[in-house]
Design a protein that fits this description.
By secondary structure, the protein is mainly alpha-helical. It has helices at 5-17, 24-42, 51-54, 61-90, 99-123, 132-145, 161-182. α1 (5-17) packs antiparallel against α2 (24-42), α2 runs parallel beside α5 and α4 (61-90) runs antiparallel to α5 (99-123). The chain is elongated, with a radius of gyration of 17 Å.
């Protein structure tokens, strides 16, 4: 359900703006919203209410979890890429954010949502535990809003994108390590 929501929102913004380009910060916020929505929605693929029966399967838990993640990555990546193309390439004026910078941020948001849900699902394998991914994403976005000066993703200038890219890349590495830790076998 979340996958078509962001491209639809981008299309609505395009219709409302007419021929006027979007502010680059607005287009970046749109791709950031795509990462949050897709990371939060994809986290629900990790919930397995039958975990108590699949634990006896010959396939290790970590492999089952990575397969679920891979199944969520493809539609999320396609939807996010479409949203980026619409928001940051088609609609944005001069100074739009490069695909590499926006992609690192989108991937980080996706993995953080998955990691938050993975730790919760490790304890309680029910669907509501996957909501923890959205909670962790909310905390991450709140923290990034209060970073000082040019380090804030919400007040980014052209000069600060290299610093932001380093911050998001470091956060991606930490989130991937956390995700790998959450996927370990429970026994």
């Amino acid at each position: 359900m979340s996958a078509p929501l962001i491209p639809l929102l981008a299309w609505v913004l395009a219709a409302m703006s007419g021929n006027d380009p979007l502010d680059p910060q607005m287009s970046q916020n749109l791709t950031r919203a795509a990462g949050v929505l897709l990371g939060g929605a994809a986290a629900f693929t990790l919930a397995d209410e039958m975990a108590h029966t699949t634990a006896a399967a010959p396939v290790p838990r970590w492999l089952r979890m990575w397969v679920r993640t891979a199944l969520a990555v493809v539609p999320a990546a396609l939807s996010w890429t479409f949203a980026y193309l619409v928001a940051d390439v088609w609609l944005a004026g001069p100074g739009h954010v490069s695909w590499a910078v926006a992609g690192i941020e989108g991937a980080t948001l996706f993995v953080v949502g998955m990691a938050g849900a993975a730790w919760a699902v490790r304890r309680v394998a029910e669907r509501h535990a996957a909501s923890a991914g959205l909670v962790v994403l909310g905390v991450l976005l709140t923290v990034t809003a209060f970073l000082p000066g040019d380090n804030s993703a919400w007040a980014a200038t052209d000069a600060s994108w290299s610093t932001l890219q380093s911050i998001w890349l470091a956060a991606l590495v930490v989130a991937l390590a956390s995700l790998a830790g959450a996927y370990r076998d429970t026994r």
